[in-house]
Amino acid sequence: MRSLLRVCGVAGLVLVCAAGPAVADDGGFTIKDPRIKESSGLAASRAHPGIYWTHNDSGDGPYVYAVDAKTGQTVARVTMEGIGRPRDVEAISIGPDGDLYVGDIGDNLDGSWSHVWIYRFHEPAQLKDQTVKATQYVVQYADGPRNAEALMVHPKTGRVYIASKRESGGGLYEGPASLSASGTNVFRRVGEVPWVTDGAFSPDGTKLALRGYFALAEYAWKGGASPLGDWHAVPGTPVQAQSESVTYTPDGTALMVGSEGADSDVVRVPLKEDGAKSPSEGGSSTGSGDGAGGGNYLLGAMVLAGAAPRPLNGRPGRGARTSRYGPRDAAQRRWSGHSFQARW
C-alpha cells in the first residue's frame, strides 16, 4: 500500500490522457463511514445483493465492513475473534462455500515477515454489528517472503491464490488444494504478473482481473500448472487517488474499483463481451522471473488513452527517485512485448 509512487510527471501524463474524472458512475457509490479511511479490498456479497465487503489497511483491527452500494453506508461491522492481531490486511475474497477470506498479506518492507496470514469466516446471514469466530491460516511462499496485496479465491474450486507486489513485476502464487489450520500452507509460484494491488475472479471462474495503480486487465483463466491465458486491458478504468481494490459485480457484467482515503469512491466499470485487445492484439502472460511476463499497467493505460509510449528518463526539475529501499536505476518494464525505460 505505502509504496504508491508519488509521481507527478507520470500521473499527470495519465490524467491528461484519461477520458474523465474518477467519479462514481451508475452503480457506483461513495464509502461514507468515517471509520473506513483505507479501504484496501472489495468483495461483492453473495448472500446480500447490493452489499460489498471491505476493510481498512494496517492500523485498524480485526474488522470487516459491509457497505450498501445504494447509499454508501455501512450496514454491518464484523469483528473477527479467534485470530491474532492483524498486521497489514490488504485483500478480501469470497469462496464458493460462502466463506469470506481476508488476506493479512501485506509486507511493506518486502520480505520482512517469515509468514503471513489468511482469516476465514462464513458470510453472516444477517447484516448487523456482530462478532464471529474466524479461522486463521499461516502462509509461506515457496521462494521466500514477499509483499502482496491481492488474494483471490476461485469461485469453482475454492483454491486460494495470491499475487505478489513488486514494481518490476510480481508472481501469481497458488495455495494447496485445501488450507490447513494446523500447519503451514505453502504457496507456490505458477505465473508472472505486473505490479498488482488487487485481483478478483469472475463469478464463473473463467477470468482473473488484476489491478495496478494505473490500469486494469482481465486474463483468461486456464487453470492447471500454467493458469494465466491471454489478457486484455479494461477500457474505461478511472484514474483514482490510490487504486487499491477491485471485484466483479455478482452478475459478472462489470468490475467495481475502489481507492483508499476518506469518502473514497467505488466506481463501476462495465465490461464488454469482446473486450479490448492489448497492444499486441491479445497479449500473452508467459515469462519468467520478476517482471518478465507481467509488463507495465501504465503503458496499457497510455495506449488505451491514445498516448504513444515514450522513454521516461526522469522528471523535469527532479533527479532520480530515492525510496526507503534505496535509489532506483532505470528499470526495464515490459507488457506483452512493449517496453520502455522508466526511472522511478
Main structural class: mainly beta
What is the straight-line distance between the termini?
16 Å
Q: Which sheet architecture does the biggest sheet show?
A: 8 strands, mixed
Low-confidence stretches: 2-26, 276-282, 286-344
Please estimate the helix content: under 10%
Q: Helix-strand pattern, N to C?
A: HEEEEEEEEEEEEEEEEEEEEEHEEEE
Radius of gyration: 19 Å
* General shape: globular
Can you list the strand order of the major beta sheet?
Answer: 6-7-8-10-14-13-12-11
What does this structure look like?
The chain has 344 residues and is mainly beta. 6% of the residues lie in helices and 38% in strands. The protein contains 2 helices and 25 strands. The strands form 6 sheets. The chain has an 8-stranded mixed β-sheet with strand order 6-7-8-10-14-13-12-11, with no helix packed on it. It has a 5-stranded mixed β-sheet with strand order 2-3-4-5-9, with no helix packed on it. A 4-stranded antiparallel β-sheet has the order 1-21-20-19, with no helix packed on it.
Brief sketch in words of this structure:
The two termini are 16 Å apart. This protein has helices at 8-17, 297-305; strands spanning 29-30, 41-44, 51-55, 63-68, 74-81, 91-94, 99-104, 116-122, 130-133, 135-141, 148-153, 160-164, 170-174, 184-193, 198-201, 207-211, 216-221, 228-233, 243-248, 254-259, 265-270, 322-323, 326-327, 331-335, 338-342.
